[in-house]
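Re: Re: ligand-bound prediction request (bumping)

Still looking for help on this. To restate: I need the protein modeled with S-adenosylmethionine bound, output as structure tokens. Inputs repeated here so nobody has to scroll up.
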Amino acid sequence: MAPSRRMQKQGIPEPLDESIFVKKRKIGQSEEDIKSKKQKTGGKSAVVPAAKNVNGKAKNSAGQRKTSGTFSEKSVTKKTTGKKAKTIPQPAVEDDEDDLSALEDVNGSDDGEVSDGVGGLDFLASSDDEVLEDDEFIDSDDPDVQKAMWSEDEDASDAEEMLNAANIEGLSGRLDAEAAQQEEDAQAELEDAALQTNIAADISKDPNQSLIAPDLQMVRNRITETTRVLTSFSSLAEDGKSRADYINQLLDDICTYYGYSRFLADKLWHLFPPQEALAFFDANETPRPLVIRTNTLRTHRRELAHSLINRGVTLEPVGKWSKVGLQVFESQVPLGATPEYLAGHYILQAASSFLPVMALAPQEGERCLDMAAAPGGKTTHMAALMKNTGCIFANDSNKDRAKALIGNIHRLGVKNTIVTNYSALEYPRVMGGFDRILLDAPCSGTGVIAKDASVKTNKTEADFLRLPHLQKQLLLAAVDSVDHASKSGGYIVYSTCSVTVEENEQVVQYVLNTRPNVKLVETGLVFGKEGFTSYMGKKFHPSMKQTRRYYPHAYNVDGFFVAKFKKTGPTPLNSVKAQGQSKQSNNNSNGASESTVVDKTPIATNDASKEEDDFGGFDDKEDQSYIEKARDKQLKRKGINPKAKKPPGVKTKQKDAKSSKK
Ligand SMILES: C[S@@+](CC[C@H](N)C(=O)[O-])C[C@H]1O[C@@H](n2cnc3c(N)ncnc32)[C@H](O)[C@@H]1O
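Reply:
Sorry for the wait, this slipped through. Here it is.
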């Protein structure tokens, strides 16, 4: 049986296996069964009581959901099936100075219903949703905290040994359970296989059949069958039934079975080939693994792992692609209240949230901006990569969320960060000249439906107009705030936790169209699917391939999008003027080969003609030079070259003044 996704590895995947997604909802479980199970805290195989977060609240749905099994169960499954859960070679991306690979085999998976041991934790949400209010901050100057700083070049094998020793007791205890579980798993796997290969026959054999809500089971079967037909339409379709008929039926069934609005089901379904779309919808029904990010400003991953293992936490490195992430499988303690947590040795952060910061790759000594920073998962990661040097401006327009940001900054011992509370649209006016900018934009959250099921029904067409519009404006503001002449940088990373094209490729394309002084560059991330270069009749610039898409069903991470830009020169005035036109002229090298959707609303904060008006209307000769200087200064601050060629028909005030005198 496929292990629960909470227990599966994240990152570079095994090939898509239908068995993983065909049966996410258990046979015999209705929607109500699942809901009521989520609310239970007991249950036959609950290992530990649901823990509370630091605020004593237990609210996140993912956290309340029981996951199942113990680590040993995973290894049993491996033996039984003969499949290796982790055989995909992963390219080494970062130094392996704290390689914890020895831990990788100690954790197992499940097939039943066992508490994850951290149920009810607020922080099971991604960092994007994390609003932990933590009043108890440990000052990084505290000598105890200083003791917790670890040498970066400590021998990796020593660490593995220590960690293995620490795990050994737990491992031997689990062997008995493994044996007992083995038979059950084998049987369950047989049933799973039958479900996929012969639905009709399987239903009659299912021991839980009496518990099946008949209509739901029927809908599920029809979804599977329709998907199969759509995959080989010419050979499997019934005579007289069109593809559109099948798709309509399928979308209706998806809405019934998974609870999506028809609008969103339609939008998401079209992102994938039929079979993969089904995998995506199924993956949204199960929570992603709980992950913590080691705060390297306070400690080292192996030391943190050792401390947490000693507290009864079972964990392993999140994957070779990250040297700071730990995936937690089971915990005897609430992870939001351990001494290590309170001392800022780690932050609860979804694995996908690491990716934009890894792509940004801020360097020591740089001046960086995190435009939409609260609650600070990514800001604090940036600070750690910069080793608390240079300067980060962490901005968020929401004051309450900015408080959580400040809390995390203190708890994690970040000392190079200034928090601001502007709409990031205003940033080019506030200040510019940044080496690197992260825009982790507000979005619809279609990548995190497993965490927030309300997205299934509460997003409307209006949201998919309003949000992309804001995202485009924010991204333009990011471009205009970065220093193209930065010696080490000049980069902008744009990310969302949404998978829709409107919020991702279309936003990027809009910015390529309106800012010829930026280009897409490689993100440097070792996994992720390429961004779309065409989608439903729209064509995007070929460099869109360099953007990266992440899906729950493909990588067992939240749905995410990451694009990295390099600013190559100052923003020419004519491109600012052109902003707002529906189609770019042919001399725009970034333009797509066909027209793309372009936001027609210019961004007010960057409207150069408005600036000229602001400084216009003075005839006095003496004032004129001051006005010109001020105008040039302001343009420079925005990264716009004041000497850049003006678009035809745009005259400076000085020239206008001269000509009016003639
Ligand atoms: C996806 S969350 C950011 C998560 C954050 N980067 C992290 O890793 O913890 C988006 C944030 O954008 C903020 N936001 C929305 N509109 C904004 C604006 N116009 N300017 C700045 N921040 C904005 C929201 O308050 C929210 O905190």
